[in-house]
């Protein structure tokens, strides 16, 4: 989308002195609960130059800050108060191994034998070179990796006047950073790895691999074993009914299919099963509609429905197993 492209350029072109944070550890919620963390606030300082550096301080991503602070400038002025989206709903997936949710540009890791989940910002594949949705495993751990640019990357770089070497040795100029986890996808070309371009973490800029900040990939690499399950999903909407009866919906901007697409207004398509689950859960439909349009990227509390019987034609419903379609306001409607 055009707005996101301008923001991306502004984000990459600046610098900040805020120091990087270590992994964000969250205690696992009790059974039946998916809500973790609390949002924070931060006042932008004169020395802050971009959102990536601010995000690294809280181990969150730049585009998540854009979602949470919808009306801010690409480079916020000193004195601006930012919402830091460090509250979230866990993905509706088994609590084991690695879960990558492409839509929220986050990686979740469940360390074996510990009652915590670690959450990391990631960079993923750009339009046309998307990171695939898949269930796989870590097939190889590679410390100090070398990088052999694939033919496609070499050709694209050559078209821009850049001649890449056949092999980039390990070191500070290696695009894979100091650690890489090879995934059992395709011919082994997909990696979770570090990067020598820290500001690319939290954006869609890779050729399909998953990028992490230097301290984050080091922390993950030290804990992950070969064979660890990896689930890559693409779910812009998460919904939870907590054990105490509270309802939450977390809506992210969906991944754009083209640079021109406005992900703030593009329709969000839900499966019939998930749409029916949200409808039948009984939350107030007006509040759900508002959250679907706002797309704040953090959990929004939904009041209880005023009527016990849900409206069968309500927003987010679907039928006949077909995905739901959306109207021009970004609301998901019955087909």
User: What Rg, in angstroms, do the CA atoms define?
Assistant: 20 Å
Q: SS-based structural class? A: alpha+beta
Oligomeric category: single chain
- Please state how the strands of the largest beta sheet are arranged side by side: 1-8-7-6-15-10-11-12-14
The H-and-E topology, N to C, reads as: HEEEHHEEEEEEEHEEEEHEEEHHEEE
Helix share of residues?
A: 10-25%
Sheet bearing the most strands, described? 9 strands, mixed
* Low confidence ranges: 1-22, 308-335
User: What is the overall number of helices?
Assistant: 7
Query: What integer is the average pLDDT?
Result: 83
Number of strands: 20
| End-to-end C-alpha gap | 26 Å
Strand portion: 15-25%
Gross geometry: globular
Layout of helices and strands:
Layout: H1 2-12, E1 24-27, E2 35-37, E3 40-43, H2 51-58, H3 62-68, E4 81-84, E5 87-89, E6 97-101, E7 106-110, E8 116-121, E9 124-125, E10 134-143, H4 151-159, E11 179-183, E12 191-193, E13 204-206, E14 210-211, H5 214-223, E15 229-233, E16 237-241, E17 247-251, H6 272-281, H7 285-294, E18 300-302, E19 325-326, E20 332-333
Give a short overview:
The chain has 335 residues and is of the alpha+beta class. The protein is built from seven helices and 20 strands.
Task: Explain the overall architecture.
- There is one protein chain.
- The protein is an alpha+beta fold and 335 residues long.
- The protein is 19% helix and 24% strand.
- The strands form 6 sheets. It has a 9-stranded mixed sheet with strand order 1-8-7-6-15-10-11-12-14, with helices on one face. The chain has a 3-stranded antiparallel sheet with strand order 16-17-18, with helices on one face. Strands 2-5 form a two-stranded antiparallel ribbon.
- The radius of gyration is 20 Å and the shape is globular.
- Residues 1-22 and 308-335 have low confidence and may be disordered.
């Amino acid at each position: 989308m055009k707005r996101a492209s301008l923001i991306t350029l502004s984000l990459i072109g600046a610098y900040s002195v805020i120091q990087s944070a270590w992994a964000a550890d969250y205690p696992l919620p009790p059974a039946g609960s998916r809500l973790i963390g609390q949002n924070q606030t931060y006042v932008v300082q004169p020395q802050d130059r971009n959102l990536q550096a601010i995000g690294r301080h809280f181990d969150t991503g730049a585009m998540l800050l854009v979602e949470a602070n919808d009306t801010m400038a690409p480079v916020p002025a000193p004195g601006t108060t930012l919402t830091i989206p460090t509250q979230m709903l866990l993905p509706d997936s088994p609590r084991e191994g690695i879960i990558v949710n492409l839509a929220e540009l986050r990686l979740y890791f469940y360390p074996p034998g510990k009652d915590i989940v670690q959450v990391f910002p990631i960079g993923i594949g750009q339009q046309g070179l998307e990171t695939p949705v898949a269930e796989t495993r870590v097939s190889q751990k590679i410390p100090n990796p070398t990088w052999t640019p694939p033919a496609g990357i070499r050709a694209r770089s050559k078209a821009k006047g850049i001649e890449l070497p056949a092999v980039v040795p390990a070191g500070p100029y290696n695009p894979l950073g100091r650690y890489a986890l090879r995934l059992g996808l395709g011919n082994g070309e997909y990696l979770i790895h570090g990067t020598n371009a820290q500001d690319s973490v939290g954006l869609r800029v890779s050729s399909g691999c998953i990028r992490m900040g230097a301290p984050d990939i080091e922390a993950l690499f030290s804990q992950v074993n070969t064979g660890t399950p990896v689930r890559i999903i693409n779910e812009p909407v998460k919904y939870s009914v907590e054990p105490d009866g509270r309802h939450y919906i977390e809506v992210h901007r969906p991944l754009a299919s083209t640079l021109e697409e406005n992900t703030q207004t593009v329709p969000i398509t839900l499966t019939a099963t998930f749409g029916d689950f949200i409808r039948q859960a009984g939350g107030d439909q007006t509040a759900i509609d508002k959250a679907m349009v706002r797309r704040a990227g953090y959990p929004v509390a939904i009041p209880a429905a005023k009527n016990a019987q849900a409206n069968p034609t309500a927003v987010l419903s679907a039928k006949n197993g077909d995905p739901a379609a959306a109207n021009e306001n970004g609301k998901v409607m019955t087909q």
